[in-house]
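can u pls check wat happens w/ pyridoxal-5'-phosphate
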Amino acid sequence: MEIKGSPQKAILKMLDSRLEEDFTYNSGRIIGSMCTHPHPLAKKVYARFLEKNLGDAGLFPATAELEKETIQMLGTLLSNPNASGHIVTGGTEGNVLALWTAKKVSRKTHCEVIVPASAHRSFYKAADLSGIKIVEAKLDRKHQVDVADVKKLVNSYTIAVVGIAGTTELGAIDPIAELSELATQEELYLHVDAAFGGLVIPFLKDLGFDVPDFDFALPGVCSITVDPHKMGFAPIPAGGILFRNENLRKVAAWDTPYLAGGETEQATIVGTRSGASVIAAWAVMKHLGRQGYRKIVKKCMGLTLRLAEEIPHIEGIDIVTKPTMNIVGLKSDRFDIRRVAHELRRRAWAVSLFPNHIRIVLMPHVLEEHLEKFLEDLSEVANQLRG
Ligand code: PLP
């Protein structure tokens, strides 16, 4: 650290210049991320309540109450107003908490969890941390988990099954109803990773899209990850973990007796944690309401369907599958898809690259004009690669 400090104005100027090379959502160039800029109200609220710490909830009981209400709003959206849980750092922490809970509930030492081959890396982190073996189930042609394969993989060590409602790679929704039946029959813990889809699918349903059940309406579902900092327009960090009931939420809670507020329970992985992001998530959800989110999803889906329609007109590029939500996979039988991604990145498009496809996510910050420009550039890249 320098001995001599600098005036605030100078620091701010320095930061403006130092951070210039970062991508911005407003530019529309970030088209491969599941995050977006927070809602303007969320920004205001976040800045106003920065000092709140839910790691010591006894000091901030009113903030803790807003967290309960936020969970209740999410629970109501996911067919269970009595769900219990926390706003956490992200989908990763949500999934870690879910597997940890499943392990503690099972009381087993050698544990296996069956996840779809499309599972997010966070499950592998969770398993590594909790000493769980991950067993991957195959996907079918629709990129959903093959339930027959899941059934085959169940053995005496299996403690839990994971289903995904909105896969990271393509936004596919696993047959959660069938997984719920299986979990009930075999007395297994079922966790649904709806980190992205949880704040999309209910609104798709409202809009008349044909989407399957995936939430607590299905009796086998024990917990759901759903992230306000993805399609919820809330500032980072705002993931969400919802348990079917309070008893499940408390399984991974720890007594932390030294806390100044006198409330000793901590039930998240981290101790000190942002109350501001919880309050901001609460504010944006209260403000937008179901109608507001529906409108956002409608706009995102409009652009998604337009992109999916236009891609087949670009020679050499195709879509992986008809999009279920605002995620489109681009593939090529003709070019190495990594070269396509490389050329797009050279043209300052922040696309996401998987082994066999490029992922485009039509988040709320992506506007029609951005999509037009992207299609133009993609056509040029295809022309260039055709030579
Ligand atoms: N689950 C799914 C389905 C995801 O797509 C992601 C991230 O993209 C996560 C979990 C992890 O979320 P986070 O990056 O907020 O930890």
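The pocket of pyridoxal-5'-phosphate is lined by residues 34, 90-92, 95, 120, 122, 164, 166, 168, 193, 195-196, 227, 239 (CB under 6 Å).
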